[in-house]
């Protein structure tokens, strides 16, 4: 497979998977009825932010795959994506902010592990994950606040 093909596959996997899971698990009346903290962003912000983040995640995944397919850094990339894709079904699908919190905390740790493991090998991939880490740290605080308020 050519390098461009790797990028295309990884971007389609992350973006397509994320969009599909997001469409299947849209916030509904239940979510609207929850008490939320003052720092809750407007719903219209999530789609554009996640679209950008999934593209960055896909690029970092393709770069990592091309450099070290069987490595702890690739394992952390795969594991974070699994947890990323599990969060919406847990939080929205099962209507369980507590389960969402139990997923998002290890997700954040895996994102940080990916950054740490990539730092010396592939600084670009590490940097591509930084906005993702910031967003998931924010989402973790939001998730924890929703658990506390409800």
From TrEMBL:
Transmembrane parts of this sequence: 7-26, 46-66, 73-92, 98-119, 126-149
Membrane topology field: Multi-pass membrane protein
UniProt keyword annotation of Transport present: no
Major location category of this protein: membrane
Top-level lineage group: Bacteria
Location within or outside the cell: Membrane
A Pfam family it matches: TspO_MBR
Keyword annotations: Membrane, Transmembrane, Transmembrane helix
Keyword Transmembrane: yes
Cross-referenced InterPro entries: TspO/MBR-related_sf, TspO_MBR
Entry's family note: Belongs to the TspO/BZRP family.
Protein's name according to its UniProt entry: Tryptophan-rich sensory protein
Taxonomic path: Bacteria, Pseudomonadati, Pseudomonadota, Alphaproteobacteria, Hyphomicrobiales
